[in-house]
Each structure stands twice: as C-alpha cells, then as structure tokens.
Amino acid sequence: MAKWVYAFGGGFAEGGLADRDLIGGKGAGLAEMSALGLPVPPGFTLSTEIGRLYLASGHVFPDGLADEVDGALAAVGRIAGRRFGDARDPLLVSVRSGAAVSMPGMMDTVLNLGLNDETVEGLARVSGDRRFAFDSYRRFIQMYGHVVLGLDHGLFEEKLEDYKLARGLVLDGELAAEDWQAVSDLFKGLVIEETDAAFPQAPTAQLWGAIRAVISSWNNPRAVAYRRMNAIAGDAGTAVTVQAMVFGNLGETSATGVAFTRNPSTGEKILWGEFLPNAQGEDVVAGTRTPQDLTERARQETGSEAASLESLMPEAFAAFSAVADRLERHHRDMLDLEFTIERGRLWMLQVRPAKRTIRAALRSAVEMAGEGLISRAEAVARIEPRTLDQLLHPTIDPENGADLFARGLPASPGAASGAVVFTPDEAELARTQGRKVILVRVETSPEDVHGMHAARGILTTRGGMTSHAAVVARGMGKPCVSGAGGIRVDFKAGTMTAGGRTIRRGDTITIDGGTGQVLIGAVPLREPELSGDFATLMRWADDFRTLKIRTNVDTPADARAARSFGAEGIGLCRTEHMFFDQRRIAVVREMILAETPAARADALARLLPMQRTDFASLFEIMSGLPVTVRLLDPPLHEFLPTGDAEIEELSAAMGIPPARIRARSEALAEANPMLGHRGVRLAISFPEIVEMQIRAILEAALDVGEASGRPVELEIMVPLVASKAELDLIYQRIRAAEAQVVRLHGRAPRYELGTMIELPRAALAAGDLARSASFFSFGTNDLTQTTFGISRDDAAPFLNAYLALGLMPSDPFATLDETGVGELIRIATERGRAVRPGLKIGVCGEHGGDPASIRFFAGLDFDYVSCSPFRVPVARLAAAQAALARAGITGAGLPASAEAPAV
Amino acid sequence: MAKWVYAFGGGFAEGGLADRDLIGGKGAGLAEMSALGLPVPPGFTLSTEIGRLYLASGHVFPDGLADEVDGALAAVGRIAGRRFGDARDPLLVSVRSGAAVSMPGMMDTVLNLGLNDETVEGLARVSGDRRFAFDSYRRFIQMYGHVVLGLDHGLFEEKLEDYKLARGLVLDGELAAEDWQAVSDLFKGLVIEETDAAFPQAPTAQLWGAIRAVISSWNNPRAVAYRRMNAIAGDAGTAVTVQAMVFGNLGETSATGVAFTRNPSTGEKILWGEFLPNAQGEDVVAGTRTPQDLTERARQETGSEAASLESLMPEAFAAFSAVADRLERHHRDMLDLEFTIERGRLWMLQVRPAKRTIRAALRSAVEMAGEGLISRAEAVARIEPRTLDQLLHPTIDPENGADLFARGLPASPGAASGAVVFTPDEAELARTQGRKVILVRVETSPEDVHGMHAARGILTTRGGMTSHAAVVARGMGKPCVSGAGGIRVDFKAGTMTAGGRTIRRGDTITIDGGTGQVLIGAVPLREPELSGDFATLMRWADDFRTLKIRTNVDTPADARAARSFGAEGIGLCRTEHMFFDQRRIAVVREMILAETPAARADALARLLPMQRTDFASLFEIMSGLPVTVRLLDPPLHEFLPTGDAEIEELSAAMGIPPARIRARSEALAEANPMLGHRGVRLAISFPEIVEMQIRAILEAALDVGEASGRPVELEIMVPLVASKAELDLIYQRIRAAEAQVVRLHGRAPRYELGTMIELPRAALAAGDLARSASFFSFGTNDLTQTTFGISRDDAAPFLNAYLALGLMPSDPFATLDETGVGELIRIATERGRAVRPGLKIGVCGEHGGDPASIRFFAGLDFDYVSCSPFRVPVARLAAAQAALARAGITGAGLPASAEAPAV
C-alpha cells in the first residue's frame, strides 16, 4: 500500500531533509530536527502526492488515507500525552502548508484546531488560564471561518469592534475571559448567519476541513501569481503538516520568536532575531507589539529598553543557542528558525535556509569555508551570480525614505542622481561644466551615445530591457531605467510629468536601475565595495573555472573598468562606436556622403589616425591580453542625421545642400535595417573602409607592441557572415591592407582572422567557415533575432505578453534559448571543430554575461565568453559554478537569495 | 603515359559523344561523325586537360605533347594525302577552341594555318586558283595577326582600304590574284612594323602559336563575362581541335552553310538553313553577302530569287540531307550542323544540339516522341521548365520594331500596353471607365494593391526581382518591370523622364516583363496559346510526377486562372490580401484604431460576412480540392494610411482626430517590421481577430460543402510560429471558435490544423511542432530572410554585387539555398516525420515555382508545392522532371535553350 503520511516527534521521524519534494520544506525540516532529538512538537505530514491527487481527482482523497491520519494522530497524542478531541485535556493541532519550494505566506494555515464548546473548557482547566482558552477559541473560529469557510476577516473584526464599543473597551488586553467567551459566541453566530450552518464542533470534521482548505490554497490567486513570478512549476502541489500546538502565550514564562543563525543583512556570525513574551506567532507577524531583541549585545546595539531573551529567560535562551548552533553545523548553512517557549520549555517549529543579502551571502560563505563548515568550492557554488551586480554599482541606501516619481524597467543596475536634461547635447555641455545630469529621452539611438556617456544615468519612457538605451547603458555600466511609460515628456516645455507631478529641466532626480525607481531629489547612495569577502570569493572562483572571461568594450574608460573587474581580454571591440564620437561623426558623415572615391578616400584618410589612436589606447590597457576587433557593422544610415536642424548643420559644415543629404539618407534607408546592408556586406561594398580600419588596427598594434615590448594578441573578426565566399573575399582584402602596412613600415604585427557566427546560415555552414577562420565568436544577440525572427527593438509589445502567458520560459535575449539558438550553436561548434580541431570559440552577445547561458557555453567547452565590464564578475562566478557543476558540486537546495529577510 | 591528343578522320575516331568534358563539344561531335563514317576532314583534338595544365602552369606544355601532336599531324596528312608544310601540296589546318559547354563565338579560331610564302605557291598550283591561294594567305595573316599576335583588325582593314583606294577598286571581288599577293605583302609588312618581328613562316611555329592563343582565349574578357552570365565554371578550360582545311570558296561547285534538322523557331520537321556558294564560313557570319535558302520549299516561301542548294547542287544536297537525317536519328535530337562543299564534295564541320525557341522545343519533343525517336519521358525531360513562362503570357511580337524608352528588371513575365497612370486610384478609376492603364510607381506597398489589380501592368523605378511589386505582380500573373532606375518620376507634374525623353500621364506605353523593356506607344502583342503541343506535353508530365502542385491565390480570378493552369488546390490563401480591398480597408482600419474591445468587436462583426464571402468563392472554385488558409500575417501598421491626405480622409470618415490616427500609427511602427509584431504574435495579442477569421472560414466551408455536396478539404495554418506553446494557444482559440460555430449552426466542417515553418527556430523545433500540427507548410521566403539575415526589401543594393562577384551562385530568394535554408528544411522534415509519420509537407514560398528548388523538395518527398498561378505549369513540368531524374532520365547534354538561334 502507498504511504501518504509521515510522522515525526519524540526523537523519531519518517523522512528527513532529502525528502523535500515528498513532504515539503517545512515537513522535511521538522522531521530532520525530530530525528536529531531536538525538541519538536509531534506531528505528521501528508505528502505532496496527496495534494496532487486531491486537486487532480476533483477533490477526493484516496481510500485508506483517513486510517493513516487517524493512526498518526493517535501517535501524536501518545507522545504529547493528550488526545485529540479529549474534552478534559484536548490535543490541539496546527495545520500548515509546506511546498517543496518555499512560498512564504502564500498559502493558508489554521491554528488551535481541535477546540470546540467542550474542549475549550478542558483547555481552560488544564492551562489554568480561562482567558487564554477562550481567546484561543475565538481566534480559531475566526481563522477557520476565513480559511475553511471562506468568510471575510472583516466580518469577524466588525463583530469584535461592535462588542468593544458597546462596552467602552479599546485594547484587546482589556478583554477578560468572559468577554472572549462572549466574542466566541458572537463569532459562532456569525458563521451561522453567513453559511446557514453551525460552526463544526467535531474535531475530526475540523481537521479534514482544514486539510482540504490548505491543499486547495495551492491554487489561490496569490500563490499562482507568486509561482509565475518565481518560475515555480504549477503542478507540484503542497504537503500538509499537522502538528501538536504549543503555546507561547501561556503567561510570562512563555514566548515565541524567530531567529537567524547569522545576521541576514551582514552575514556576521551572531545569533540574530527577535521574540515576544507571552505571545503566539501571529502576534509577531501582526506587528501590534514591538518585538524584543534575542541577545544582550543586540539590545545594547539597538538601545532597546525591552529585555532580551538572553536576560529574560537565560535557560531557554541557552537551550535555543545550542539548538541553533547544532542545526547550522548539521545543515552547513545559515538558517532561519522559528521557536516557541511554553512555560519555560523550548519547542522548535521551523528550520529553513535563511534568505540573506548578497553581502551576508558572501560573508557567511567565506567565513563558513574558513570555519571548515563547507569547502571553498561549496562557498563558490552557493552565491547566485546575478546578485553580484548589486555590489558593483552604487545603490540607494534603503535606510532613507524616498519620494517615488515613477517606475520603469530595471534596465541597467546602479543608482545615480543628477539634474534632468532632455538632449544629449545638454548632457555633454553639463559634463564640460562639471555638472551631474540624468539624460531623459523617449528612447535613444546611436546619435545619443555621446550624451549617454556624459550623463550619470539614463531614463527612457519607451523600450524594454533590451532596447538601445538598456544595452548601451549596461555596456557603459551606467544606471538606466527604461520604458517608464507613466512619464510624459514635453521636450518643448522642457518638462516631464507623471501622476500629476511635473519635473522641469534642471530639477534633480535619482534613478535606481536595479529596481526601476525614479525618485524626486538627490537620494543618498551607498558606494560599492569590491574588496574583502567579494575579492576572496572571486579569487576562489577563478581557481575553479576553465572558461576565460573577456569583455565587450570600445572605450579606454570601459576597458580599465573591465580589467579592474578581472576581464582577461577584449572579446568584442565595436569599431563603429568610435565613429559616434562628436569630433568624428562629422568626418564619418563626409565619408558616407562622399560622391567620388577620391572624396571618400580623403575622409577615410582623416579617420585613420583617429581610429589608430583609439586602438592604441585599448591595446595599451589590455597589455598583452587578447583583443578581438570587429570590423564596421551597422548600416551606414545610422550615422547620418535625421532631424532637420542636424541636417542643416551638417549641410553648412560640409557645403552640401540639405536636399542632397536628405536624398542620400533616403537612398540608404531600409525597411528592415537589422537584415540590411551591414556587417560583411558593407565590407564588400566599401573595400576602402576595410582598408582604413585594417591599417589603423595593424599600425596601432605595431606601435604598442614595440613600445611596450609586449606584442598585442590581436584577433580581427568579420560580422554578419553567411558564407565562406564572403569571408574569403574580406580576408583577401585584409591581407592586401597588411601588405600595404608592410610596404610602409617594413613589417606588420601578427594577428588571427576569425568570424562572427550570428546568422543561422553561418552556424549551418560552420564547417566551411572554419576552413578559413581560425576563431568563431558567437553574436548571440543577432543569432537570437534571426533564429526567432524577433527584432529586439520591436519585441516589447508582444514579448512581455509571451512571458506573462508562459509561452516562453524567459526572455531569449537575456537567457539563451537552448532549444533553437542553442542547437545552432551546438551544430556550429561541432562542425567547426570537426574541420579545425584547435578552433577558438567564444561568445560576445549579451548572453556572455548571463549565468544560465554561461553554463550552456561551458558545457560546449567554449574558450571564453565576453560580456560588458560590469558583468565580468558575474561571468567569472558563473563560469566557476559551471565547472563545479560538472564535478557534481552545486549550491542547489541551499538557495542564497538576494532578497532581504521578511522579518 | 598520359594521353592528350585524340585523333579522328577517315572513318575512325578516338573518343566520341560521351567525351565532351575531355575533348570539348566540337571535338566530340567531329569524332562521333567520323566514327559513323560520315565525311569529316581529318584532325585531332588536344584535350581540355592540356588547356587547364597550360593555364595553371604559367603557359608551359607538358613534355611529350609535341611528339603526340607531330604524330597526329602526320596521321592527318596520311588521310588527307598532303603533308603539313609541304611546299608543293601543303596540308592546311584550322585551329579551333571547343569547351565542354558551348560558348559560341566567345573564343578564338585560326583558319588556313600552314600557309607561308612557299606553301601559298603550292596551294595556288594544286588548286589551280592563284587568286584563291593569295586571298587565303592574306586572310590567314590577318587572322593570325589578330588572334595570335594581338594586332587590331582595323590595322589590316586600313591597309586593304588604302590599297583599294589607290587603285580605284571598291569590292573585294574586283581584286585579282596579284592584288591579293600585294595585300599579303602589305600585311606581312604591317606585322613587322607592329611587332618588330617577321610574320612566322615555319608552319610548326604557326601551329603552336595558334594553339597557345586558342587556349588562352578561355580567359579573354568576353569569355569570362559569358561564363559568369551563364553560370559556367571558370576552371574547366577548353580543348583545341586542329583539323584539315576544306574550302567552300574553290569556285562555283563549292559552298559553305549551316543548317538545323528542324525549324528552330517552330520546330517543324524540315531541313532549315542557308548557304553561300563559293565562300568560306566567315563570309556567312560576316553578312556581306545574302545567304541562300537550303531547300526549294524554303526558297518559294521566302520568295527568294537566289537558287536553293537543292536546285543548285542536287547531289551534294541529297548527300547532306541524308547525313542530317542520319545524325538526327543518331543523336535523337534536333541538331545544328555546319558543312562545306569543296568542288562538289560534302564535308561535315560541326554538329551540336540546336538552340531553339520554346515553341520549337515543345513541337520537336512531342513530334520526336510521336516518331518513336525518343520516349515520352525523354520528351518531358528535355523542356526547360522556366521557358514555359513565355507561353503563358502575351509577348511582344519580335517582328515589330519598337521604340525603347528605358529598361528595368524582368520582374513578372508578359507584355502589356496602356496609358500611364501614377496612382492606384487613377488606375481604379480607369478600370471603371474601361480604359487600359500601366501603373507607374517608385515602388509599391500593400496600399497600391487595388491599383495593381486594376492596371494591365506595373512599372516601378525601384526594387528588385523580389520587391513587393514583383512578388505581387507575379502572384497576379500581371506583367511587371521593376527597378527601372533610369526613369525619374515627377508625381506633381505627372510625368516620367528617361534619356532626355518625357512621357506624360495618359501617354501609351508597352512594358515587357519578360525582358524588362519599357517601350513607347502600343506595340503589337502575341497572345499565348495553351493547347496543342503544350497541352500534350503537360499531360505527359502529369503522368510522371508524384508531387502535387497547388497555388498561392487570394482572389477568385486568380483561383480560376490557377485551375486553368492545372493547380490541384490552394497551398496558400493570404487572408490579409482580402483586407486591402477598397471597400474593406476602412473597416479594417476601424478595427485597428478601435480603442475599446467593444469598438473592435463591432468592426470585426462587419468584417465577418465579407471574409465569409471571400472564402466561399474560393471554396466553390476549388470544388473539393484542398484549400490551405493562413491566418492574418502582416503587422497591423501595414493597414494604416501614411500620407497626410489619406489620414485626413480616414479621420473624416471615422470621426477620429488625425492626430490620434497618426499617434496610433507611430505606436505601431516598427524598426524591423519583418521581425516584428506579426504572424502568430498578432493572433496571440488579438484573439478576437482569430475568432472572426475562424468563424468566417468555417461558416463558408459549411455553406459551400452543403450547397455543393462536396465537403471542402480545409486546412488552416498559423504563420511565423517559433514554438509549440504558441501553436497550442492558437489551436485552443481555434477550437473555441469552432465550438461557437457548432453552437450557432449545430455543426462545423472538418478541418486540419497545421503550421508554417518559416523561422529557423521552427525548423529546429519541428519535432515538437509536429506533436500539435498535422501539416507543415514551409514559408521559404521568410525562412530565407531569417536564415541569411537578409531582408528582401533591402537586398538589392548588395545582392546584385554578390551575384556579380560570384559570392552567391544565385539569388537565394529565387532558387533555394540548399546549404543553409535547405538544411533547415531537411532537419524540419526529418524531425517532423519522426514524430508524425503521415505528416503532410508542402511549400508555399516563391521557391514553390522554381524548378531547381522543386527538385530539392521532390527529393525530400514533399507532398506538394504551391506557387503563383502562372508558375503552375512550370512547377508541373519541374516536378515531373524531378521524378524522372530519380529514375535516371534527364534532359542533360541536350539543352533545349529558349534562346533564338543566332543565324
């Protein structure tokens, strides 16, 4: 016969920690503590299978379950020394949910179950506290009425308020035993009024009603929403734990509390928590009384006048301290505990891994490794890589109140304050004047990049997490809030409005790109700290990983930042970003608008020294580390001005009629620029641009290599390649440009030639491409766009709906789609290596900084991933975890969430 | 030792027809004729391997070749009874190129080789014609001087003209033997002047010079360009045939001529050709004398007064007739022959398959099958499917002179005349007034479709072979010339200008979409004829094919045309095309601009009966054949007006402020609409549109099925699907709409649900998709776009360069790219069938009408291809050929070109 009920208590337990899926997190923790001989009120758990069967069968329990429950309940009674339903000395129980994955507060609980008009008298007698007994009874009726019978809480509160009003009572504490008895009667009357049935008096009927309600609460809207937000499967179902009640509200030697084995904010190894004397758990949560500190030290630090548990109940405290210590050593992790002290006796009610801040996660992991509690590998495996992002940027000090103006998407982490400006030119002017500004745009385009560089942060009212603003800001490591649709910008008036309030040009705001908040005024920020535990853990991570971490940068500032974060080279240098510099864009435009080869050559000749200088700086900073330079990629129309004013300006500067500029712009315009005249197609149409770029790259490498004595490890790659024929033609032109460098300088630096793989066809033709290319760099942004047929710029209106409807597990531009895009990558990797065994393979799309994607790339034995500078630490850690996972070491089961503890 | 030289002559030959690759087409033909015992002047062929070795080695011949040539030359002498270089009775030879694939006139030839100051006297003596001997000598010097020594023809012509002028001579015929001798001397002097070396007198030196020159002419610019245009490999090289000269210019009993075994224009079985008495081959080509008819019948038909060969030299004619007949029976094909009659004796100089018109190809194939010369399968295999296009449309009568205004791309075949209009509304107005017009646009968009329907033909000044105009016009079977970049349109003035000439609104022009010509005035047209040989051959083709041919149509007129061309169902009905109808677009716009679900529902309710009528007509016409309906695909902004005038109009009609229309348009605008909010994504965002479409489809099918007693074979498919989750959601909505139909009507028709495969991800996830979809339809247009990352709308600027540079073998939007797109199709087909063995698979992209692509689809055992109506016959034939090719029956080696014969 199937087993559905798992008992625990009295130093014994069926099941333990390993059985979370079967008996839920709560049940597993209680079973484990019970088996360890710790003081746990006896109880039993109905398995998650029962939960699933019940929901799937149309609310029917399997035959035999009732017998199992009866048996388990009798066993609980034997241990507790009381019988369920015994009118003289009743056993009361709690009925709680417990899913495999913690969903705190999302499902329902019933306490004090087993009370009725008879047993309440028994409880009064045995406890010697009639007021306690009737208070418990009315609480039970209210809770049961709400959870099981579906009545509104407010109805009960009203009755209680009416009662108090009629008698001139204000605080609950003023009600005596008789009052609570009267209230209980009123509540029972309410149940009859509302349900046309009496409040169930039979304890067994109460029990089954509660079990059914708790199981069904798996599908309440709150729980469904939580699962969707946290990507928890909807068909796992919940277990139900039925446990003997203990009471923290049985007078001054009773108490109830919660504790963490270490400080969940800082990670410091000190018992940390709070308690309430003479109270039940719900009082702590309700917040009507102020909880007191657990330890004397904490009391002194907070300057509280209320006694600590340590001083108030030294014996119980000592017992709890010992239990906490034993549990942490047993679980080898920082824990979140719940306990009750009933007339001086300690009872443990819950144990689970503690939610903690990233700082606490780092410190506890490093210190536990120091204490020998866990290995360094386990310490590394326990940190969720994404959470590192919070450490690398200034953040809003959560201690400070803030005035929320609007909310957008958390597009690029970090917080920044500054005066509002509405154009990139204003931003640039402000920088030259030493003023800090936040650039506000509807959306950004490459023409805004100089303004984005000049600003402290970027706020857009349109565009998603992968809009131009978001991608560029992340690349720059600058805070960005995107798609703040509630804000309306009036550029002419120089104002923005949201929720009826208006901010003017020059007013100060603060944006938090980690949360999407836009705040009024300058909010105090907390600066990042990259030494200490962070540095230690990253060093350990580096010892484990094999994947190299490079960075996608185009500017010296970004390159320096990336090296400080541990980048081991540049995996993507986008040469076009250099073109957008204010001083250069004019020459670039001349080059594009040139009507003769001679005019174009002239403009290119002026660009050459500029590009050479750019490359030289990057090569110097990277000092012998590999640098991958990508040839010009975007369609030329991206460089041309579009607004009338800008066209007039360019016209005046170049002495070309505006109409001709407009005509050329229109001639270059494309219906689908993403699939247009760009990448290698430009290199084929405009050989002279390739020639200039190659000269600039090779000459810079030559100079830096000779000046520094360290040869530049140079890699040149061609974007948007679809076939070997394209690659061969460009390689031929590159070799020709090299020959020119040799003619001019007598020599040329060594370099490797590779290709981007960013089109499905390139992935399929990878065997061919590998005959010519000595390395592959996967451009997963474009590859995702073409594989899915989704433009990142246009995806927002439907992609959000897709995610909400569960049609996609995650945004494919954030986390690699393994089924489609991943398969093309696998195919390309296999075919490329089959032809050229030593083929170097890396990735330079946004996915290079995404932990789940990095695990995938590591699984294919990539040589490196390349990501934006601020993602480098994330990638280092994720790469280490990928290597550890292959060796069987994971942080699973002990989630170190970034969420601050709820208490 | 390798063999490089292949001899023929005297009833013997080394090699034959099967050796075209080795000894070239010319050499193979001569060898074959010689082996058949036909009168062929003896000679030998240097293999193509020699050509390749010579060019690859830097112009060096392998050791031993000279000996082989000497031996072969001696053998020729023995058969001819003359020795090469013999001063008394010299053997003269011709040296000609001969590639495996015919490249007529592209490479060089030297005749009369072996003449020098001594042998010319011997020739004079033996021939008894001193004038002939010195005329031959001067011709040789000129030809050799040009081909081998690189001198300009003009230099020789000048000398000759000066000589004639000085002596008052006008015609060449007036020059006597002495004159030609003097001219020979002048020519030799010219050679010394220009080359600083005497004209080579040693026949062996002459021979090797000529061989080198002929081999090298493989790489002359003319030949290179020809190969590029005709997709002939550049590394095949040419063979060289050295053959004893025979002379058609040895008096009145000599002649030279060319002939076809059947009429190359009509295919009629009658010897057809022309000759010149007393002339050499080059005289026929030069066109200075009018050639005479071969047969009496032809002479009578043309009304020529010059005698026919049949009457002039009856014996030689009879001999030639017999040879021609024997050769046709031997080759089992219509042939192109060259012959010379030397003093009454017939010599055959060339045999090759005849170039012929498509009419001649059809008639000769059908008649040869009737004669039992070839099988029906071979007849079917011999017709190039593309050429059928010419038969299905009116064409410009080539007999008529025409005034060329400009030239564009041959975007959609057929010719049409009409008055020029510049807007779709003018076109529509003209139709209601019964006027024929040609719609001229810079480029077209979906808003122009009603005007395209109303016009007789479409001319655009921008856009390629796969632009909107081209694709839509082909779909409609309407003539279209696209991308006529030389024309400048002035819409305000209502004029268009090209080459300094201006055409005004209302002026009549004629366009030929088969050639890209734009002609001034109304040029007479030749109407298509689909019966007779065409019908016979198509009937035969249908017997051989297994692939079904469906059609892509949206209107009743197209559906009827497609059935008349033999379509076996509709493979793609684009429901959105129905939306563009003038009467409906307003309602569609209301639906899109609706600001409440109720307003949208109202507009949809008005669209429902319209769509139902549309579907009902198509179902009726298809009368029980399968019909595949695709749900709405294009992004909604395509339906909104863009011009101010149109917006004002819509604003007035709908009572919505223009600003709101503009705002909605802008909100819907996309950076890359091809990768945007379209296809299944629309169906997900706007369930009410799906609901309306499904109701319209099912109700129409119900009505037609019951009225006709023939149930509609209905297939519904979802566009732009990337994952099974999308498909399942839409299927669920379709089932819900079906349930609604059942509620309303008590029943619903049967239908199948399938998916388009037009994204790489869909191809990779095909196994998943096949779990839900019961058929696949490959949308190869979109699949090509995403696989290559190339937008068809934007490809022209670089795709043409790609084709010119040889970076792509062909336009991937015209002929399927088998390496990339084809592999995805293969993967999808395998995975889909692995999951669902009976999975129905078809293709509905443009490639469904391309013969090479059809061969690929047939190879994967597709169930059907679907193409535009006018491509249906092409597809039927191509499908038959694909089936025959798998059985080993091809038309290869006997190309039936559409090109008219050059003579």
Automatic annotation (TrEMBL), chains A, B:
* MF terms in GO: pyruvate, phosphate dikinase activity
Q: Where is the Pyruvate phosphate dikinase AMP/ATP-binding domain?
A: 61-299, 301-367
Top-level EC class, please? transferase
Its UniProt entry gives the catalysed reaction(s) as: pyruvate + phosphate + ATP = phosphoenolpyruvate + AMP + diphosphate + H(+)
Residues forming the PEP-utilising enzyme C-terminal domain are 531-882
Per UniProt, which keywords does this protein have? ATP-binding, Kinase, Magnesium, Metal-binding, Nucleotide-binding, Pyruvate, Transferase
The record ties this protein, via SUPFAM superfamilies, to: Glutathione synthetase ATP-binding domain-like (SSF56059), Phosphoenolpyruvate/pyruvate domain (SSF51621), Phosphohistidine domain (SSF52009)
Q: Which residues form a coiled coil?
A: none
Q: Which InterPro entries did the record assign?
A: ATP_grasp_subdomain_1, PEP-util_enz_mobile_dom, PEP_util_AS, PEP_util_C, PEP_util_CS, Phosphohistidine_dom_sf, PPDK_AMP/ATP-bd, Pyruvate_phosphate_dikinase
Give the required cofactors: Mg(2+)
Which EC number(s) does UniProt give? 2.7.9.1
Domain named PEP-utilising enzyme mobile: which ranges? 436-516
Q: Its family? A: Belongs to the PEP-utilizing enzyme family.
**Which NCBIfam families does the annotation name?**
PRK05878.1, pyru_phos_dikin
- Main role? Catalyzes the reversible phosphorylation of pyruvate and phosphate.
Task: Give the protein's recorded name.
Answer: Pyruvate, phosphate dikinase
Which lineage ranks, top first, belong to the organism behind this chain? Bacteria, Pseudomonadati, Pseudomonadota, Alphaproteobacteria, Hyphomicrobiales
